[in-house]
Amino acid sequence: MPRFTPFLHILAFALGAWILASCNISGTNDLPEAGSSFALLQEKVLTPNCATSGCHDSRNATGGLDLSPAVAYQNLVGVAPTNQNAKADKLLRVKAGDPYKSFLYNKLDSANIHASDGYGSPMPLGSRAVTAGQLDFIKFWISAGAPKNGTVADAKLLEDTRSQNETLTLPPPAQGVQMRLDPFSVPPQNEREIYFARQNTQELIMTKFEMVQRDRSHHFILYGYDPARSGATTPKPNIIRDLYLPDGQLIPARFPEMSGRTFLIASQLKAETIQFPEGMAMRIPANWLLDFNSHYTNGTRDTIRGEVVFNIHTTTADRVKTFIRPLQLGFFNLLLQPKRETVVETTFRVGGGGSGSGQDSFSSRDSVVNIIGLTSHTHRMGKKFVIQIVGGARNGEVVYTATNWLNPPLLNFTTPIVLRRGEGLKSVVTYYNDTNETVTFGFRSTDEMNFIFGYFY
Asked: Which of 236, 270, 280, 240 is nearest to 412 (CA)?
């Protein structure tokens, strides 16, 4: 019988180790980092609801999908579904960056999945649907790029017990007003963006903004029209005004209206509370026309419903030390080539100047501004949004970073960012256009945007 030489011993040991690693017999090498968003998703949602006996466990792998811990990630992210209708609609099991094109999200979205989709029954089959908070966690994880490791979604959402199908309610404020955008329909395989103006008869000194809206909302924005400067562009109140015609064409009458409005506050979340610092408030004068702007996307084959309820908590003027102003800085000359990453840098300077255009924000009259809050807004091709200080002693300092286009953080500064005339902010936005078409600035979710929102005095 031939004997192994020392070299052959070493070779055999190395080959055996390679085979074990390649086959991943233990499975531990494929597990995500403990405490990461995907590890929590596996622990709180996939393992107890999906990777159960007879369903998506390693023994059965219903629909060809095994969601047991060692293989769940590689079986989900970037993988085509076996459902032929979902495949025809160009869904992936998880499409990084786009929850609405992710089969996993659609199957768990019990409030919106319809038989007409041809996607099969909502999941988990025969069990209680995942909660509204768990569904939001999955949505934010996917929109942040569906990473295997790292924390990109708020773990508190996993403990939210609200039903997906609950009635949309919000307790009214003890002091202030509650307003509502009544339910409206969103056509199948389409999106709808509407405006609804309401006359405001009293001065509102807002200290806090609370909002809830139905799922599939892209954003809610509150605008105001000052009668002293809006003139003929002021829309008529109490009438729903669509941004698009049924064929998808923009309605020309909307553009003159946009020129006369003032941005007040915005949110992309299903539920959000924006609280201003103690002693600060935003003044909304009496007799302003308030304009509600709601944008919903509907990838299903049935009509869904949009709806928004929000509270404006108020105080009296004598309790306010500082009145703040809303910040809106935008860049509109976007040109994103197909199948390419594009980085867009834009500067906005106090007193005017820079490569961007400010709207209802820094003006030529401003000499010093104090920024107390910043957030960002892009559509799904926006992969990273960075804000830097331009000029002064803090030139080049990064003060804001977002990697989740659907859930960008509102970053509050207890010590304001002080900017003097000639200084300002720079946005550095990284886009990846994964389509075969050139994408430009636009209002639809398939177009792109580039905005800094925030608050200052």
From this structure: 280
User: Tell me, what amino acid is at 266?
Assistant: A
Taking only the tens place, the pLDDT of each residue in 107-150 is: 998 777 777 678 888 888 777 889 989 999 999 999 999 999 99
pTM tops 0.85: no
Of the candidates 133, 6, 168, 148, the residue with the CA atom closest to the CA atom of residue 72 = 148
User: Which residue is associated with the tokens 């007799």?
Assistant: 287
Tokens of 332: 């509109």
Tens of pLDDT along 383-422? 999 999 999 999 999 999 999 998 899 999 999 999 999 9
- State the CB neighbour count (10 A cutoff) for residue 243: 18
Q: Pick the closest to residue 195 from 292, 94, 92 (CA basis).
A: 292
CA atoms within 13 A on the CB side of 141: 31
Q: What is the distance of C-alpha 13 from the center of its chain?
A: 50
- Distance between CA atoms of residues 16 and 5, nearest Å: 16
133-150 as b/e: b if 16+ CB within 10 A: bbbbbbbbbbbbbbbbee
